[in-house]
Amino acid sequence: AFFANKVEHESRHCNGKGLQRQGSSSFDRVYTANQNCGHAYPTFLAVLWCAGLLCSQAPAAFAGLMYLFVRQKYFVGYLGERTQSIPGYLFGKRIILFLFLMSVAGILNYYLVYFFGSDFEIHIKTITSAISPLLLIP
C-alpha cells in the first residue's frame, strides 16, 4: 500500500490527472521501483512458505520480516539515485537465498526420513536458528 500510494502521489504531482506512464524522471523511478517490488513478492512468498513449513518457522519468519524491511530500503533508495538501491537489492537476494536453502534442507530431511529413517530436523533447526542472525550483517 505504501508503494502504490507513492506512485499515485508522484503521478498526481507530475501530471495532475490519474495514473499515466509518461512523466518526470521521479515518476519513472517510483513506478519502476513499485513494479520491481511487485514482481519479487511471489518468489518471496513461495520460498517463505516452503522454508516455514518444511524447515523451521522462527528463522523463516525472522528472514521474512528482514526481507520486508529490506524491500522498503530498496524502494526508498530507488527514489534517490539508482546506486542507493543496490544495497537493498543485494541484501534482499541474500535473504531469498537463505530461505531457499532452508527449503532445500527441509526437503532433503523429508527424503532422508522417508528412505533411510534418519531425522536431522533438530540439527537443521539449530543451524538455521544460529545462521539467521547473520542476516543482519550488511
UniProtKB/TrEMBL annotation:
GO terms for biological process: leukotriene biosynthetic process. The chain crosses the membrane at residues 46-70, 91-112. GO terms for molecular function: enzyme activator activity; glutathione peroxidase activity; glutathione transferase activity; leukotriene-C4 synthase activity. It is a multi-pass membrane protein. It comes from the Eukaryota. It holds the Pfam family MAPEG. Coiled coil: none annotated. Keywords: Endoplasmic reticulum, Leukotriene biosynthesis, Membrane, Nucleus, Transmembrane, Transmembrane helix. It is found in: Endoplasmic reticulum membrane; Nucleus membrane. GO terms for cellular component: endoplasmic reticulum membrane; nuclear membrane. The keyword Endoplasmic reticulum applies. Required for leukotriene biosynthesis by ALOX5 (5-lipoxygenase). Anchors ALOX5 to the membrane. Binds arachidonic acid, and could play an essential role in the transfer of arachidonic acid to ALOX5. Binds to MK-886, a compound that blocks the biosynthesis of leukotrienes. Homotrimer. Interacts with LTC4S and ALOX5. This is Arachidonate 5-lipoxygenase-activating protein.
